[in-house]
Write a structure and sequence with these properties.
Blueprint: E1 6-15, E2 18-28, E3 33-37, H1 44-51, E4 59-64, E5 67-68, E6 71-74, E7 77-80, H2 83-90, E8 93-96, H3 108-118, H4 124-137, H5 153-165, E9 171-175, H6 183-199, E10 203-207, H7 211-217, E11 220-225, E12 228-233, H8 235-240, H9 245-257
Parallel strand pairs: 3-10, 3-11, 8-9, 9-10
Antiparallel strand pairs: 1-2, 1-4, 4-5, 6-7, 11-12
This protein binds adenosine-5'-diphosphate and magnesium ion (MG).
Residues 15, 20, 38, 40-46 line the site of adenosine-5'-diphosphate.
């Protein structure tokens, strides 16, 4: 059996007295596409932020590849991770946010080149070539010298994807990347994610409210509810055939909307 690329082992997260995640166990295989659905406040973003090392679990372990995110081996015993360890871990993980977080004073191409050059120490010419390639992949080969404010929301989100891809992550995280977009721009962004997913190499975790998209692209769907994984299975099992009542209620809200 293939070793998992992402593992959560009894992960808990509290903010002050508020228990947000209450024992998450999760295994994601390389190249597996996992959709995470669930009501607002159920802890979806917290899972993503912990994988990005933006939040530390209160207890439990998160392992990406062969690295525990927050612990490292020092002379045979596990100690708290240092900055260098965290930087290495982050190198394997790419993320696209709901709000694009592009650098406004840099061109689209510069937005993509900067992290490979400054974080991964990639040669400038090589970073440029790879960035152009990724921008073409997301359909923006003709916008290289434009600035973010000259682009539509959908185009900005596609730049954000290219920017994550140039880092060659093993795991890509998408947190509701279409929910800040005008409805007519959602399709083009989902299309690009679908293309990336079909290439197949990376594991992907997609927090989404687009149920048709999840049915189509995901290998596995998790329903997160009140800080636990309340249901998981194939997209069809979870979205079409589950008799979990809270999941039914959650899904009905979306059916009513579309
Ligand atoms: N930095 C934080 N400080 C305090 N509470 C937080 C913080 N981040 C998230 N929360 C709380 O954790 C819960 C889960 O949030 P989140 O993971 O964003 O849920 P979702 O993405 O599913 O809507 C919410 O109740 C939210 O208010
Ligand atoms: Mg969220």
């Amino acid at each position: 059996m293939t070793e998992s690329i992402v593992k959560f082992r009894d992960v808990h997260k509290s903010f002050g007295d508020v228990k947000v995640l209450k024992g998450i166990d999760l295994d994601i295989k390389p190249a597996e596409k996992v959709a995470v659905i669930g009501p607002s406040g159920s802890g979806k973003t917290t899972i993503i932020r912990m994988l990005m090392t933006l939040e530390e679990p209160t207890s439990g372990d998160i392992i990406v590849g062969d690295k525990n995110l927050w612990k490292m081996d020092k002379n045979g015993s596990m100690v708290e991770a240092n900055e260098k360890h965290l930087r290495e871990v982050r190198g394997d993980i790419g993320m696209v946010f709901q709000h694009f977080n592009l650098f406004p004073h840099m061109t689209i191409l510069e937005n993509c080149m900067t992290a490979p050059i400054h974080v991964k120490k990639v040669d400038k010419q090589q970073a440029r070539q790879h960035s152009i390639e990724m921008l073409k992949k997301v359909g923006l080969g003709d916008k290289l010298e434009n600035y973010p404010n000259q682009l539509s929301g959908g185009q900005k989100q596609r730049v954000a994807m290219a920017r994550a891809l140039v880092m060659r992550p093993k795991v890509m995280l998408f947190d509701e990347v279409t929910s800040a977009l005008d409805p007519e721009l959602v399709g083009e962004v989902l299309e690009v994610i679908r293309d990336i997913a079909e290439e197949g190499e990376m594991a992907m975790i997609l927090v989404t409210h687009e149920m048709d998209f999840a049915l189509d692209v995901a290998d596995k769907v998790l329903f997160l509810d009140q800080g636990v994984i309340a249901e998981q299975g194939t997209p069809s099992e979870v979205i079409e055939h589950s008799d979990n009542e809270r999941l039914q209620t959650f899904l009905r809200r979306f059916r009513g909307m579309s």
